[in-house]
């Protein structure tokens, strides 16, 4: 399909994103699947909208609404599905950040204990699966005849975590120069620890205003709002039925869910 090739050429970065997200699809396959899923999903959403409006809107207006909203819904769904590799990369990056300090220290201890670099990298996946998956790929490449330097270079291209890339670069540089591996790795781990401490401090600064807004918007405003609405309804004769109260409760629950999701997503993926 020409449109698939056009989109693939337009988003040249897609190949690297798919590799970093550990997705086996080629860029063309991913775009094709995304287009098909977007078409079916957008048609389904339009059908639901049609069923809601069929009895309350004139046929001509309903047709115009469907015609004009379908492309908008399709584009929204397409770009939403197009973010899947980025979301997966972010998830992998967070999982690596949770293990990278401990995995780095494990590697240093193994090397300083006299274990060869190959055996140290081979032992690491047994204890740290997220970080170890990349070391296991290096081991697999070495086992089929690739040199360790080339295997490290290849794995750097598909690694989504900057800290782990620094570790790989340091190991690669030490192998090329013939220098010590443990001491430079200690410096890299210390730098990663400092970066994570900065992330934690920034998160702490964000947490206080977020907590204040949560108290104001999700707790105080709904409580006072329902109280004021009840008082006003008595004077103006407004009837508060169960459906309206349930709607208010659902909106309040949605706001609280969004705040919790915001706080959770902004939490740095750090383990000390």
Task: Please tell me the total number of domains.
Answer: 3
Anisotropy-based shape: flat
Beta strand count: 0
Q: State Rg.
A: 27 Å
If helices are DSSP runs of H or I spanning 4 or more residues, what is the number of helices?
Answer: 11
> Major β-sheet, in short?
none
The helix fraction, in percent, is over 70%
Order of helices and strands: HHHHHHHHHHH
The overall average pLDDT, rounded, is: 83
Q: Proportion of β residues?
A: under 5%
Low-confidence stretches: none
Structural class: mainly alpha
Written account of the structure:
There is one protein chain. The protein is an all-alpha fold. The protein has 3 domains: 2-82, no CATH class; 92-193; 198-266. Helices cover 83% and strands 0% of the residues. The chain has 11 helices and no strands. The protein has helices spanning 2-10, 14-20, 27-53, 59-82, 84-112, 117-123, 129-143, 148-158, 162-177, 182-236, 242-266. Helix 1 crosses helix 3, helix 3 (27-53) packs antiparallel against helix 4 and helix 9 packs antiparallel against helix 10. The longest helix is centred in the C-terminal third of the chain and has 55 residues, at 182-236. The protein is flat. It starts with a helix and ends in a 6-residue tail after the last helix.
């Amino acid at each position: 399909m020409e449109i698939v090739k056009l989109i693939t050429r337009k988003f040249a970065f897609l190949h690297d994103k798919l590799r970093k997200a550990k997705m086996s699809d080629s860029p063309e396959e991913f775009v094709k699947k995304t287009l098909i899923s977007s078409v079916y999903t957008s048609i389904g959403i339009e059908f639901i909208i049609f069923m809601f409006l069929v009895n309350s809107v004139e046929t001509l207006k309903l047709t115009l609404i469907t015609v004009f909203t379908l492309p908008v819904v399709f584009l929204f769904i397409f770009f939403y599905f197009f973010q899947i590799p980025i979301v997966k990369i972010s998830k992998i990056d967070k999982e690596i950040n949770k293990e990278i300090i401990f995995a780095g220290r494990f590697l240093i201890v193994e090397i300083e204990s006299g274990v060869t670099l190959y055996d140290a990298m081979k032992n690491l996946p047994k204890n740290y699966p997220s970080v170890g998956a990349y070391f296991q790929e290096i081991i697999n490449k070495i086992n089929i005849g690739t040199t360790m330097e080339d295997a490290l270079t290849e794995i750097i291209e598909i690694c989504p975590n900057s800290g782990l890339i620094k570790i790989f670069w340091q190991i690669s540089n030490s192998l090329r120069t013939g220098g010590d591996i443990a001491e430079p790795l200690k410096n890299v781990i210390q730098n990663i620890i400092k970066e994570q401490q900065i992330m934690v401090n920034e998160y702490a600064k964000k947490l206080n205003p977020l907590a204040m807004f949560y108290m104001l918007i999700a707790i105080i405003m709904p409580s006072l709002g329902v109280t004021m609405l009840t008082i006003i309804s008595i004077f103006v004769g407004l009837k508060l039925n169960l459906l309206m109260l349930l709607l208010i409760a659902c909106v309040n629950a949605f706001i609280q869910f969004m705040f919790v999701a915001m706080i959770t997503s902004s939490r740095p993926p750090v383990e000390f």
